[in-house]
């Protein structure tokens, strides 16, 4: 093989291999809710010790799919559903939409970063923080590393928190938003640590506040955010961390909350309208802002707004507040109502609230 082709092959393999699915095998959320994805339909997972009114996160072993830990951003629970010895007192907000997210430390095979956000009830004062968890501690059950707990990155912040792979296929981007301003903070997480943020100031009054989900497209080229009455779509440069080219999908709505891209990056689903109960699909394939806005298609109505989360089966799951079920978009890559929204299709243990686990979006990429 020629040297150039050999290098190209190695680069392609490296970039494709960063995607994962087993890391998202176990979901814990709500009041004692759990799901296990192991091929085919998800199965109910009992035993959760957590009550999370909104945001949560979990992570599984990338090779075996075994549960490692989960959290509401305040307490970290190990695989035996026991709080880690140093895993209490984290500083996420109790009602933060995306209170936490976990990424692997790119410089370690045993360490993870757990990022947390405050909530807007107190003006986002707790800020964006990180904790380092080492799975070699506590007899192999993992623990928060002493001196690496609640480390502040910036404050105040809004409730949105997303992660996606860097274009170099090694590092990660963590994106959070300033509170009551139009500043977006992209932190590059490298094998050597977390770099100073890339700060983009963009958007007008329609994208200033406060709660709701944010997501990257799985291929890392787009970023979307809902802000309690508005939803914006942006281009994202996963080499530089800069967002640009705001497309205001929703403005002046009474409420917006949950959103998710499809696995093939061509669609965006958004809860909007009076109580953010109306689910709309936007077709992004044209790349033309006016065409994207005009593509809004009403997919269905849910009883009350909730989070949306893409899963490794390429379906999008929807939190149904104060119930024992989730709704599902069965074919999210399909345009219009052919995406097949099924209300209350999945029965879960415990009681669902507003949130589902928050995962790095790269894990679900179908583009390569």
- Which overall shape is indicated by the principal axes computed on the Cα atoms? globular
Largest sheet: 5 strands, antiparallel
Strand content: 35-45%
Query: How much helical structure, as a percent, in the residues?
Result: under 10%
Which sequence of SSEs, written as H and E, runs from N to C? HEEEEEEEEEEEEEEEEEEEEEEEHEEEEE
Low-confidence blocks of residues: 1-18
Structural class category: mainly beta
Distance between the termini: 22 Å
Overall pLDDT level: 92
Number of strands: 28
Q: If you compute it from the alpha carbons, what radius of gyration comes out, rounded to the nearest whole angstrom?
A: 19 Å
Number of helices in the DSSP assignment: 2
What does this structure look like?
By secondary structure, the protein is mainly beta. It contains 2 helices and 28 strands. The chain has helices at residues 3-17, 289-294, and strands spanning 26-29, 33-36, 43-44, 57-60, 67-71, 76-78, 100-104, 111-116, 128-134, 143-144, 151-154, 157-165, 172-178, 183-190, 193-194, 198-201, 214-216, 222-226, 231-236, 243-250, 259-261, 267-272, 278-283, 297-301, 308-310, 316-319, 323-329, 341-352. The strands form 7 sheets. Strands 7, 8, 9, 10 and 11 form a 5-stranded antiparallel beta sheet that branches. Strands 12, 13, 14, 15 and 16 form a 5-stranded antiparallel beta sheet that branches. Strands 17-18-19-20 form a 4-stranded antiparallel beta sheet. A hairpin with a 2-residue loop joins strand 14 and strand 15 (193-194). It starts with a helix and ends in a 16-residue tail after the last strand.
